[in-house]
Specification:
The complex is a heterodimer of chains A (336) and B (220).
Chain A (H helix, E strand, L loop, with lengths): L2 E13 L4 E13 L3 E5 L6 H7 L8 E6 L2 E2 L5 H8 L2 E5 L10 H11 L4 H14 L15 H13 L5 E5 L7 H18 L2 E6 L2 H7 L2 E6 L2 E7 H6 L4 H7 L14 E6 L8 H9 L4 E10 L2 E9 L4 H13 L3 E5 L5
Parallel strand pairs in A: 3-8, 3-9, 6-7, 7-8
Antiparallel strand pairs in A: 1-2, 1-4, 4-5, 9-10, 11-13, 11-14, 12-13
Helix pairs in contact in A: 3-4, 3-5, 4-5, 5-6, 10-11
Chain B lengths: L3 H39 L8 H16 L2 H7 L1 H8 L5 H25 L3 H9 L4 H12 L1 H21 L8 H11 L3 H29 L5
The chains are: A alpha/beta (336), B mainly alpha (220).
Chain lengths: 336, 220
Protein backbone atom coordinates (compact mmCIF):
# COMPACT_ATOMS: atom_id res chain seq x y z
CA UNK A 1 0.00 0.00 0.00
CA UNK A 2 1.22 3.45 -0.88
CA UNK A 3 1.23 6.16 1.74
CA UNK A 4 -0.77 9.28 0.94
CA UNK A 5 -0.17 11.33 4.07
CA UNK A 6 2.76 10.96 6.37
CA UNK A 7 2.65 12.72 9.70
CA UNK A 8 5.99 12.72 11.49
CA UNK A 9 6.45 13.83 15.07
CA UNK A 10 4.04 16.72 14.67
CA UNK A 11 3.66 19.02 17.66
CA UNK A 12 1.60 22.16 17.98
CA UNK A 13 1.82 24.53 20.89
CA UNK A 14 -0.44 27.53 21.20
CA UNK A 15 1.12 30.33 23.17
CA UNK A 16 -1.34 32.55 24.96
CA UNK A 17 -0.66 35.67 26.97
CA UNK A 18 0.19 33.79 30.12
CA UNK A 19 -0.25 30.14 29.28
CA UNK A 20 0.95 27.54 26.83
CA UNK A 21 -1.32 24.88 25.41
CA UNK A 22 0.24 21.80 23.91
CA UNK A 23 -2.48 20.77 21.48
CA UNK A 24 -0.39 18.09 19.77
CA UNK A 25 2.44 16.27 21.49
CA UNK A 26 4.46 14.53 18.81
CA UNK A 27 2.04 12.67 16.57
CA UNK A 28 3.21 10.24 13.93
CA UNK A 29 0.77 8.55 11.60
CA UNK A 30 0.74 7.18 8.07
CA UNK A 31 -2.46 7.31 6.09
CA UNK A 32 -2.71 4.95 3.17
CA UNK A 33 -3.69 6.00 -0.31
CA UNK A 34 -7.35 5.30 -1.04
CA UNK A 35 -8.22 4.54 2.57
CA UNK A 36 -10.81 6.10 4.81
CA UNK A 37 -9.02 6.97 8.00
CA UNK A 38 -10.90 7.99 11.12
CA UNK A 39 -9.22 10.19 13.67
CA UNK A 40 -11.27 9.97 16.81
CA UNK A 41 -11.02 11.53 20.22
CA UNK A 42 -12.98 13.37 22.87
CA UNK A 43 -13.54 17.07 22.32
CA UNK A 44 -10.39 18.99 23.12
CA UNK A 45 -8.16 16.03 22.30
CA UNK A 46 -6.48 17.96 19.51
CA UNK A 47 -8.00 16.22 16.51
CA UNK A 48 -9.22 19.40 14.82
CA UNK A 49 -5.75 20.92 15.19
CA UNK A 50 -4.24 17.77 13.73
CA UNK A 51 -6.45 17.82 10.64
CA UNK A 52 -5.61 21.50 10.09
CA UNK A 53 -1.94 20.58 10.11
CA UNK A 54 -2.62 18.29 7.14
CA UNK A 55 -3.27 21.28 4.86
CA UNK A 56 -1.23 23.76 6.87
CA UNK A 57 -4.20 25.89 7.87
CA UNK A 58 -2.40 25.39 11.14
CA UNK A 59 1.38 25.35 10.91
CA UNK A 60 2.89 22.69 13.17
CA UNK A 61 5.30 23.95 15.81
CA UNK A 62 7.64 21.10 14.90
CA UNK A 63 7.55 17.93 12.87
CA UNK A 64 6.69 17.37 9.22
CA UNK A 65 3.65 16.61 7.13
CA UNK A 66 4.28 14.91 3.81
CA UNK A 67 1.64 14.67 1.11
CA UNK A 68 2.71 12.00 -1.38
CA UNK A 69 6.24 12.59 -0.13
CA UNK A 70 6.14 16.38 -0.55
CA UNK A 71 6.88 18.35 2.61
CA UNK A 72 4.25 21.04 3.19
CA UNK A 73 6.65 22.88 5.48
CA UNK A 74 9.20 23.37 2.70
CA UNK A 75 6.76 25.06 0.33
CA UNK A 76 6.42 28.75 -0.44
CA UNK A 77 3.02 30.44 -0.38
CA UNK A 78 2.17 29.77 -4.03
CA UNK A 79 3.23 26.11 -3.87
CA UNK A 80 1.26 25.60 -0.69
CA UNK A 81 -1.85 27.11 -2.25
CA UNK A 82 -1.47 24.90 -5.31
CA UNK A 83 -1.10 21.84 -3.09
CA UNK A 84 -4.19 22.83 -1.14
CA UNK A 85 -6.28 22.48 -4.29
CA UNK A 86 -5.44 18.77 -4.04
CA UNK A 87 -6.52 18.59 -0.40
CA UNK A 88 -10.19 19.44 -0.09
CA UNK A 89 -11.90 19.97 3.23
CA UNK A 90 -15.45 19.91 4.57
CA UNK A 91 -16.54 21.30 7.90
CA UNK A 92 -19.00 20.80 10.74
CA UNK A 93 -20.80 24.05 9.93
CA UNK A 94 -20.50 23.61 6.15
CA UNK A 95 -18.92 27.06 5.63
CA UNK A 96 -20.72 27.87 2.41
CA UNK A 97 -20.77 31.35 0.95
CA UNK A 98 -24.18 32.58 2.11
CA UNK A 99 -24.53 35.25 -0.58
CA UNK A 100 -23.94 32.85 -3.46
CA UNK A 101 -26.34 30.29 -4.79
CA UNK A 102 -25.55 26.58 -4.73
CA UNK A 103 -24.12 26.45 -8.25
CA UNK A 104 -21.87 29.47 -7.66
CA UNK A 105 -20.68 28.00 -4.37
CA UNK A 106 -19.47 24.93 -6.25
CA UNK A 107 -17.91 27.22 -8.88
CA UNK A 108 -15.86 29.03 -6.23
CA UNK A 109 -12.88 26.63 -6.02
CA UNK A 110 -12.87 26.49 -9.83
CA UNK A 111 -12.61 30.30 -9.94
CA UNK A 112 -9.65 30.08 -7.58
CA UNK A 113 -7.72 27.90 -10.03
CA UNK A 114 -8.71 30.21 -12.88
CA UNK A 115 -11.25 28.07 -14.74
CA UNK A 116 -13.37 29.85 -17.30
CA UNK A 117 -16.88 30.77 -16.16
CA UNK A 118 -18.59 28.54 -18.68
CA UNK A 119 -16.45 25.48 -17.96
CA UNK A 120 -16.79 26.05 -14.23
CA UNK A 121 -20.58 26.12 -14.47
CA UNK A 122 -20.60 22.93 -16.49
CA UNK A 123 -18.35 21.14 -14.02
CA UNK A 124 -20.38 22.45 -11.07
CA UNK A 125 -23.57 21.08 -12.61
CA UNK A 126 -21.93 17.65 -12.98
CA UNK A 127 -20.85 17.73 -9.35
CA UNK A 128 -24.32 18.63 -8.15
CA UNK A 129 -25.55 15.63 -10.08
CA UNK A 130 -23.11 13.41 -8.18
CA UNK A 131 -24.32 14.63 -4.78
CA UNK A 132 -27.95 14.53 -5.88
CA UNK A 133 -28.75 18.22 -5.67
CA UNK A 134 -29.19 19.25 -9.31
CA UNK A 135 -32.62 20.73 -8.72
CA UNK A 136 -31.25 23.05 -6.01
CA UNK A 137 -28.64 24.71 -8.24
CA UNK A 138 -30.32 28.11 -8.06
CA UNK A 139 -31.20 27.95 -4.37
CA UNK A 140 -29.26 29.83 -1.70
CA UNK A 141 -27.66 28.02 1.27
CA UNK A 142 -30.15 29.59 3.69
CA UNK A 143 -32.92 27.69 1.90
CA UNK A 144 -31.28 24.29 2.38
CA UNK A 145 -31.33 21.74 5.19
CA UNK A 146 -28.14 20.76 7.03
CA UNK A 147 -27.73 17.58 5.01
CA UNK A 148 -28.22 19.44 1.75
CA UNK A 149 -25.69 22.08 2.77
CA UNK A 150 -23.13 19.37 3.49
CA UNK A 151 -23.82 17.86 0.07
CA UNK A 152 -23.10 21.22 -1.53
CA UNK A 153 -19.91 21.40 0.52
CA UNK A 154 -18.93 17.94 -0.71
CA UNK A 155 -19.62 18.91 -4.33
CA UNK A 156 -17.51 22.02 -3.80
CA UNK A 157 -14.73 19.94 -2.24
CA UNK A 158 -14.65 17.60 -5.24
CA UNK A 159 -14.51 20.41 -7.80
CA UNK A 160 -10.76 20.39 -8.39
CA UNK A 161 -10.41 16.58 -8.36
CA UNK A 162 -8.62 16.42 -5.01
CA UNK A 163 -6.53 13.46 -3.91
CA UNK A 164 -7.49 13.91 -0.29
CA UNK A 165 -10.72 14.91 1.42
CA UNK A 166 -10.46 16.10 5.03
CA UNK A 167 -13.71 15.97 7.00
CA UNK A 168 -13.73 17.97 10.21
CA UNK A 169 -16.68 16.74 12.29
CA UNK A 170 -18.63 16.79 9.03
CA UNK A 171 -21.63 14.97 10.44
CA UNK A 172 -21.66 16.35 13.98
CA UNK A 173 -24.32 18.95 13.21
CA UNK A 174 -26.58 16.44 11.46
CA UNK A 175 -29.28 14.08 12.67
CA UNK A 176 -28.60 10.30 12.60
CA UNK A 177 -30.46 9.60 9.33
CA UNK A 178 -28.77 12.46 7.50
CA UNK A 179 -25.44 11.40 9.00
CA UNK A 180 -25.93 7.94 7.49
CA UNK A 181 -26.67 9.31 4.04
CA UNK A 182 -23.69 11.67 4.13
CA UNK A 183 -21.41 8.84 5.24
CA UNK A 184 -22.76 6.67 2.44
CA UNK A 185 -21.98 9.47 -0.01
CA UNK A 186 -18.43 9.77 1.34
CA UNK A 187 -17.94 6.04 0.97
CA UNK A 188 -19.22 6.18 -2.59
CA UNK A 189 -16.82 9.01 -3.40
CA UNK A 190 -13.94 7.06 -1.89
CA UNK A 191 -14.71 4.01 -3.99
CA UNK A 192 -15.63 5.80 -7.22
CA UNK A 193 -12.83 8.36 -7.34
CA UNK A 194 -10.23 6.70 -5.09
CA UNK A 195 -9.98 9.80 -2.93
CA UNK A 196 -8.24 9.28 0.39
CA UNK A 197 -10.58 10.45 3.13
CA UNK A 198 -9.61 11.57 6.61
CA UNK A 199 -12.51 11.80 9.03
CA UNK A 200 -12.29 13.69 12.28
CA UNK A 201 -15.02 12.75 14.70
CA UNK A 202 -15.87 12.14 18.32
CA UNK A 203 -18.39 9.45 17.45
CA UNK A 204 -17.23 5.85 17.27
CA UNK A 205 -20.31 5.00 15.21
CA UNK A 206 -19.04 7.18 12.36
CA UNK A 207 -15.72 5.35 12.35
CA UNK A 208 -17.43 1.97 12.45
CA UNK A 209 -19.71 2.93 9.61
CA UNK A 210 -17.13 3.75 6.95
CA UNK A 211 -13.53 3.80 8.11
CA UNK A 212 -10.93 1.17 7.35
CA UNK A 213 -8.19 2.70 9.47
CA UNK A 214 -8.54 4.44 12.81
CA UNK A 215 -6.33 6.56 15.02
CA UNK A 216 -7.29 7.51 18.55
CA UNK A 217 -6.11 10.84 19.87
CA UNK A 218 -6.19 11.61 23.55
CA UNK A 219 -4.89 14.81 25.13
CA UNK A 220 -2.75 15.63 22.14
CA UNK A 221 -1.15 12.21 21.78
CA UNK A 222 -1.83 9.32 19.47
CA UNK A 223 -2.70 6.49 21.83
CA UNK A 224 -3.80 3.78 19.47
CA UNK A 225 -4.02 3.17 15.75
CA UNK A 226 -4.65 0.33 13.37
CA UNK A 227 -7.46 -1.28 11.44
CA UNK A 228 -10.93 -0.47 12.72
CA UNK A 229 -11.61 -4.15 13.26
CA UNK A 230 -8.55 -4.57 15.43
CA UNK A 231 -9.06 -1.47 17.54
CA UNK A 232 -12.75 -2.11 17.97
CA UNK A 233 -12.29 -5.76 18.97
CA UNK A 234 -9.40 -5.22 21.32
CA UNK A 235 -9.11 -1.65 22.50
CA UNK A 236 -5.94 -1.58 24.56
CA UNK A 237 -5.90 1.86 26.09
CA UNK A 238 -8.36 3.53 28.44
CA UNK A 239 -9.11 6.25 25.91
CA UNK A 240 -9.92 3.68 23.26
CA UNK A 241 -12.16 1.69 25.59
CA UNK A 242 -13.98 4.81 26.58
CA UNK A 243 -14.75 5.55 22.94
CA UNK A 244 -15.73 1.99 22.08
CA UNK A 245 -18.16 1.85 25.00
CA UNK A 246 -19.48 5.30 24.16
CA UNK A 247 -23.01 6.12 25.15
CA UNK A 248 -23.07 3.56 27.97
CA UNK A 249 -22.71 5.73 31.00
CA UNK A 250 -25.83 4.78 32.93
CA UNK A 251 -24.53 1.55 34.47
CA UNK A 252 -23.13 2.39 37.86
CA UNK A 253 -24.62 -0.41 39.96
CA UNK A 254 -22.15 -3.03 38.80
CA UNK A 255 -19.15 -1.27 40.25
CA UNK A 256 -16.81 -3.66 42.02
CA UNK A 257 -18.32 -6.75 40.45
CA UNK A 258 -16.78 -8.85 37.80
CA UNK A 259 -17.45 -7.75 34.23
CA UNK A 260 -16.29 -9.09 30.92
CA UNK A 261 -16.63 -7.84 27.41
CA UNK A 262 -17.11 -10.34 24.63
CA UNK A 263 -16.82 -9.70 20.95
CA UNK A 264 -18.62 -11.84 18.44
CA UNK A 265 -16.76 -12.59 15.26
CA UNK A 266 -18.10 -13.73 11.93
CA UNK A 267 -20.91 -16.23 12.36
CA UNK A 268 -20.89 -16.66 16.09
CA UNK A 269 -23.84 -14.34 16.51
CA UNK A 270 -26.10 -16.90 14.90
CA UNK A 271 -25.79 -19.21 17.92
CA UNK A 272 -27.65 -18.07 21.03
CA UNK A 273 -24.44 -18.23 23.07
CA UNK A 274 -25.56 -16.37 26.14
CA UNK A 275 -28.83 -18.22 26.50
CA UNK A 276 -27.05 -21.58 26.13
CA UNK A 277 -24.42 -20.53 28.64
CA UNK A 278 -27.02 -19.56 31.23
CA UNK A 279 -28.86 -22.85 30.69
CA UNK A 280 -25.71 -24.87 31.06
CA UNK A 281 -24.23 -23.06 34.06
CA UNK A 282 -27.59 -22.48 35.76
CA UNK A 283 -26.48 -19.05 36.90
CA UNK A 284 -28.00 -15.77 35.66
CA UNK A 285 -25.86 -13.04 34.17
CA UNK A 286 -26.57 -9.41 33.71
CA UNK A 287 -26.27 -8.00 30.20
CA UNK A 288 -25.05 -4.43 30.55
CA UNK A 289 -24.42 -3.59 26.95
CA UNK A 290 -25.10 -5.28 23.67
CA UNK A 291 -24.90 -4.08 20.16
CA UNK A 292 -24.07 -5.30 16.70
CA UNK A 293 -22.46 -3.26 13.99
CA UNK A 294 -21.48 -3.76 10.44
CA UNK A 295 -17.74 -3.22 10.35
CA UNK A 296 -16.07 -3.44 7.01
CA UNK A 297 -18.81 -5.69 5.68
CA UNK A 298 -18.84 -8.27 8.49
CA UNK A 299 -21.18 -8.30 11.44
CA UNK A 300 -19.46 -7.51 14.70
CA UNK A 301 -21.23 -7.65 18.00
CA UNK A 302 -20.07 -6.68 21.41
CA UNK A 303 -21.57 -7.41 24.77
CA UNK A 304 -20.64 -6.49 28.30
CA UNK A 305 -21.71 -9.08 30.87
CA UNK A 306 -21.80 -8.83 34.60
CA UNK A 307 -21.11 -12.12 36.35
CA UNK A 308 -22.33 -13.25 39.72
CA UNK A 309 -20.10 -12.82 42.79
CA UNK A 310 -19.54 -16.56 42.92
CA UNK A 311 -16.13 -16.86 41.29
CA UNK A 312 -16.37 -20.58 40.46
CA UNK A 313 -19.49 -20.01 38.39
CA UNK A 314 -17.90 -17.00 36.73
CA UNK A 315 -14.78 -18.99 35.81
CA UNK A 316 -16.92 -21.67 34.31
CA UNK A 317 -18.79 -19.19 32.23
CA UNK A 318 -15.64 -17.53 30.93
CA UNK A 319 -14.32 -20.91 29.94
CA UNK A 320 -17.60 -21.67 28.21
CA UNK A 321 -17.37 -18.46 26.16
CA UNK A 322 -13.72 -18.98 25.29
CA UNK A 323 -14.53 -22.46 24.07
CA UNK A 324 -16.96 -20.88 21.62
CA UNK A 325 -14.08 -18.87 20.10
CA UNK A 326 -15.25 -15.57 21.41
CA UNK A 327 -12.88 -12.80 22.41
CA UNK A 328 -13.32 -12.48 26.15
CA UNK A 329 -11.80 -9.64 28.03
CA UNK A 330 -12.02 -8.83 31.73
CA UNK A 331 -12.97 -5.27 32.51
CA UNK A 332 -11.39 -4.00 35.67
CA UNK A 333 -13.42 -0.85 35.99
CA UNK A 334 -15.89 -0.60 33.19
CA UNK A 335 -17.73 2.38 34.53
CA UNK A 336 -15.62 5.46 34.19
CA UNK B 1 -40.06 86.56 0.57
CA UNK B 2 -41.41 83.32 -0.96
CA UNK B 3 -40.64 84.37 -4.48
CA UNK B 4 -39.19 82.29 -7.24
CA UNK B 5 -35.75 83.55 -6.36
CA UNK B 6 -35.87 81.99 -2.90
CA UNK B 7 -37.20 78.73 -4.26
CA UNK B 8 -34.53 78.67 -6.92
CA UNK B 9 -31.90 79.33 -4.27
CA UNK B 10 -33.19 76.48 -2.10
CA UNK B 11 -33.29 74.09 -5.03
CA UNK B 12 -29.80 75.07 -6.09
CA UNK B 13 -28.41 74.58 -2.62
CA UNK B 14 -30.16 71.23 -2.20
CA UNK B 15 -28.25 70.24 -5.30
CA UNK B 16 -25.01 71.59 -3.83
CA UNK B 17 -25.58 69.66 -0.60
CA UNK B 18 -26.21 66.44 -2.54
CA UNK B 19 -23.15 67.08 -4.69
CA UNK B 20 -20.94 67.64 -1.64
CA UNK B 21 -22.33 64.64 0.18
CA UNK B 22 -22.11 62.17 -2.67
CA UNK B 23 -18.72 63.32 -3.92
CA UNK B 24 -17.23 63.34 -0.41
CA UNK B 25 -18.66 59.93 0.42
CA UNK B 26 -17.35 58.47 -2.79
CA UNK B 27 -13.87 59.89 -2.24
CA UNK B 28 -13.91 58.97 1.44
CA UNK B 29 -14.63 55.38 0.41
CA UNK B 30 -11.67 55.44 -1.95
CA UNK B 31 -9.54 56.03 1.14
CA UNK B 32 -11.67 54.38 3.83
CA UNK B 33 -12.41 51.05 2.14
CA UNK B 34 -8.76 50.01 1.69
CA UNK B 35 -8.02 51.37 5.15
CA UNK B 36 -10.80 49.26 6.67
CA UNK B 37 -9.63 46.18 4.76
CA UNK B 38 -6.06 46.81 5.92
CA UNK B 39 -7.24 47.00 9.54
CA UNK B 40 -9.00 43.65 9.26
CA UNK B 41 -6.19 41.92 7.39
CA UNK B 42 -3.37 43.09 9.66
CA UNK B 43 -5.26 42.57 12.91
CA UNK B 44 -3.94 40.00 15.39
CA UNK B 45 -6.15 37.18 14.11
CA UNK B 46 -6.33 38.54 10.56
CA UNK B 47 -5.10 36.97 7.34
CA UNK B 48 -1.71 38.73 7.50
CA UNK B 49 -1.18 39.80 11.11
CA UNK B 50 1.16 42.77 11.34
CA UNK B 51 1.21 44.54 14.68
CA UNK B 52 3.18 47.57 13.45
CA UNK B 53 0.93 48.34 10.49
CA UNK B 54 -2.24 47.64 12.47
CA UNK B 55 -1.27 49.83 15.43
CA UNK B 56 -0.18 52.69 13.17
CA UNK B 57 -3.43 52.69 11.19
CA UNK B 58 -5.46 52.23 14.34
CA UNK B 59 -3.88 55.27 16.01
CA UNK B 60 -4.20 57.49 12.90
CA UNK B 61 -7.87 56.56 12.56
CA UNK B 62 -8.51 57.28 16.23
CA UNK B 63 -6.73 60.64 16.17
CA UNK B 64 -8.67 61.96 13.18
CA UNK B 65 -11.92 60.57 14.56
CA UNK B 66 -11.46 62.40 17.82
CA UNK B 67 -11.05 65.85 16.27
CA UNK B 68 -14.46 67.58 16.16
CA UNK B 69 -15.48 68.28 12.57
CA UNK B 70 -15.88 72.00 13.13
CA UNK B 71 -12.26 72.23 14.31
CA UNK B 72 -11.02 69.95 11.55
CA UNK B 73 -12.74 72.18 9.03
CA UNK B 74 -10.58 75.09 10.14
CA UNK B 75 -7.43 73.03 10.76
CA UNK B 76 -7.21 71.75 7.20
CA UNK B 77 -7.77 75.11 5.51
CA UNK B 78 -4.12 75.33 4.34
CA UNK B 79 -4.42 71.88 2.80
CA UNK B 80 -7.73 72.80 1.19
CA UNK B 81 -6.15 75.89 -0.35
CA UNK B 82 -3.37 73.73 -1.70
CA UNK B 83 -5.72 71.23 -3.30
CA UNK B 84 -8.73 73.28 -4.41
CA UNK B 85 -7.10 76.68 -4.67
CA UNK B 86 -9.48 78.42 -2.25
CA UNK B 87 -10.86 77.79 1.21
CA UNK B 88 -14.57 78.48 0.70
CA UNK B 89 -17.35 77.06 -1.46
CA UNK B 90 -18.70 73.58 -2.04
CA UNK B 91 -15.58 72.09 -3.64
CA UNK B 92 -13.45 73.38 -0.79
CA UNK B 93 -15.74 71.70 1.75
CA UNK B 94 -15.16 68.34 0.12
CA UNK B 95 -11.56 68.22 1.38
CA UNK B 96 -12.29 68.33 5.14
CA UNK B 97 -15.34 66.14 4.60
CA UNK B 98 -13.24 63.42 3.00
CA UNK B 99 -10.57 63.68 5.70
CA UNK B 100 -13.18 63.44 8.46
CA UNK B 101 -15.21 60.69 6.82
CA UNK B 102 -12.45 58.34 5.65
CA UNK B 103 -11.45 57.05 9.10
CA UNK B 104 -15.11 56.82 10.11
CA UNK B 105 -15.78 54.74 6.99
CA UNK B 106 -12.70 52.64 7.70
CA UNK B 107 -14.26 51.70 11.06
CA UNK B 108 -17.62 50.92 9.43
CA UNK B 109 -15.91 48.72 6.83
CA UNK B 110 -13.82 47.05 9.52
CA UNK B 111 -16.84 46.12 11.61
CA UNK B 112 -18.74 44.85 8.56
CA UNK B 113 -15.86 42.64 7.45
CA UNK B 114 -15.36 41.27 10.95
CA UNK B 115 -18.92 39.95 10.80
CA UNK B 116 -17.94 37.51 8.06
CA UNK B 117 -17.90 33.95 9.37
CA UNK B 118 -14.32 32.86 10.12
CA UNK B 119 -15.22 29.37 8.96
CA UNK B 120 -16.00 30.58 5.45
CA UNK B 121 -12.63 32.34 5.28
CA UNK B 122 -10.98 29.14 6.47
CA UNK B 123 -12.83 27.17 3.80
CA UNK B 124 -11.55 29.55 1.11
CA UNK B 125 -8.01 29.17 2.45
CA UNK B 126 -8.34 25.41 2.39
CA UNK B 127 -9.25 25.64 -1.31
CA UNK B 128 -6.00 27.45 -1.99
CA UNK B 129 -7.44 30.96 -2.33
CA UNK B 130 -4.93 33.81 -2.08
CA UNK B 131 -5.30 37.02 -0.10
CA UNK B 132 -6.79 39.04 -2.98
CA UNK B 133 -9.38 36.42 -3.79
CA UNK B 134 -10.39 36.12 -0.16
CA UNK B 135 -10.75 39.90 0.22
CA UNK B 136 -12.81 40.37 -2.94
CA UNK B 137 -14.80 37.15 -3.18
CA UNK B 138 -15.25 36.27 0.46
CA UNK B 139 -14.88 39.31 2.73
CA UNK B 140 -16.41 42.02 0.54
CA UNK B 141 -18.94 39.75 -1.19
CA UNK B 142 -20.21 38.12 1.99
CA UNK B 143 -20.34 41.39 3.91
CA UNK B 144 -22.03 43.35 1.11
CA UNK B 145 -25.33 43.85 2.92
CA UNK B 146 -23.61 45.15 6.00
CA UNK B 147 -21.32 47.33 3.85
CA UNK B 148 -24.33 48.96 2.20
CA UNK B 149 -25.99 49.58 5.54
CA UNK B 150 -22.68 51.15 6.58
CA UNK B 151 -22.61 53.31 3.45
CA UNK B 152 -26.10 54.55 4.24
CA UNK B 153 -24.99 55.54 7.72
CA UNK B 154 -21.92 57.22 6.23
CA UNK B 155 -24.05 59.22 3.78
CA UNK B 156 -26.31 60.44 6.57
CA UNK B 157 -23.37 61.46 8.72
CA UNK B 158 -21.54 63.21 5.87
CA UNK B 159 -24.72 65.05 4.95
CA UNK B 160 -24.86 66.33 8.51
CA UNK B 161 -21.20 67.34 8.38
CA UNK B 162 -21.74 69.14 5.08
CA UNK B 163 -24.37 71.31 6.70
CA UNK B 164 -21.78 72.36 9.26
CA UNK B 165 -19.59 73.56 6.42
CA UNK B 166 -21.94 76.50 6.17
CA UNK B 167 -20.00 78.07 9.01
CA UNK B 168 -17.01 78.62 6.73
CA UNK B 169 -19.14 79.56 3.77
CA UNK B 170 -19.13 76.09 2.33
CA UNK B 171 -22.40 76.42 0.45
CA UNK B 172 -25.35 74.07 0.48
CA UNK B 173 -28.40 73.90 2.71
CA UNK B 174 -26.43 74.28 5.91
CA UNK B 175 -24.98 77.53 4.61
CA UNK B 176 -28.48 78.85 3.85
CA UNK B 177 -29.75 77.84 7.28
CA UNK B 178 -26.96 79.71 9.02
CA UNK B 179 -27.07 82.77 6.79
CA UNK B 180 -30.81 83.25 6.90
CA UNK B 181 -31.72 81.70 10.20
CA UNK B 182 -28.80 82.71 12.37
CA UNK B 183 -27.54 85.98 10.91
CA UNK B 184 -30.77 87.36 9.49
CA UNK B 185 -33.39 85.91 11.82
CA UNK B 186 -35.42 84.58 8.90
CA UNK B 187 -36.32 81.47 10.74
CA UNK B 188 -38.92 80.23 8.22
CA UNK B 189 -36.22 79.74 5.60
CA UNK B 190 -34.12 77.98 8.18
CA UNK B 191 -37.01 75.63 8.91
CA UNK B 192 -37.44 74.85 5.24
CA UNK B 193 -33.79 73.94 4.96
CA UNK B 194 -34.06 71.73 8.02
CA UNK B 195 -37.06 69.95 6.50
CA UNK B 196 -35.18 69.53 3.24
CA UNK B 197 -32.21 68.04 5.09
CA UNK B 198 -34.48 65.63 6.95
CA UNK B 199 -36.09 64.60 3.68
CA UNK B 200 -32.71 63.99 2.07
CA UNK B 201 -31.58 61.77 4.93
CA UNK B 202 -34.86 59.87 4.79
CA UNK B 203 -34.60 59.28 1.05
CA UNK B 204 -30.99 58.09 1.30
CA UNK B 205 -31.92 55.80 4.19
CA UNK B 206 -34.83 54.23 2.33
CA UNK B 207 -32.75 53.66 -0.80
CA UNK B 208 -29.90 52.14 1.24
CA UNK B 209 -32.16 49.80 3.18
CA UNK B 210 -33.92 48.68 -0.03
CA UNK B 211 -30.68 47.88 -1.82
CA UNK B 212 -29.18 46.02 1.11
CA UNK B 213 -32.32 43.96 1.58
CA UNK B 214 -32.49 43.14 -2.09
CA UNK B 215 -28.89 41.93 -2.07
CA UNK B 216 -29.18 39.82 1.06
CA UNK B 217 -29.56 36.14 0.25
CA UNK B 218 -29.17 34.89 3.80
CA UNK B 219 -32.78 34.89 4.88
CA UNK B 220 -35.57 34.01 2.54
Amino acid sequence: METMIQIKEVTKTFIGRDNKVEALKGISLDIEKGSICGIIGMSGAGKSTLVRCLNYLEKPTSGTVLIEGRDLGGMNDAQLRRTRTEIAMIFQHFNLLMQRNVLDNVCFPLEIVGKKRKEAKKRAAELLEIVGLSEKAKAYPSQLSGGQKQRVAIARALANNPKILLCDEATSALDPTTTKSILALLKEINQKFGITIVIITHEMSVVQEICSQVAIIDEGSLVESGSVEEVFSRPKTKAAQKLVFQGERSVSLMHGKRCVRIVFQDNSSFEPVIANMVLECRTPVNILLADTKDIGGTARGQMVLQFPEDSAAAEKMIRYLKDRNLTVEELADYVE
Amino acid sequence: MWNSETILMLAENTGITLYMTLLSTLMAYVLGLPLGIALVVTAKDGLRPNAVVYKTLDVIVNIIRSVPFLILLILVIPLTRLIVGRSYGAAATVVPLVIAAAPFIARLVESSLLEVDKGVIEAAQSMGAGLGTIIVKVLLAEARTSLIVGATIALGTILGYSAMAGVVGGGGLGDIAIRYGYYRYESDIMWVTVILLVLLVQILQVIGTRISRKLDKRSR
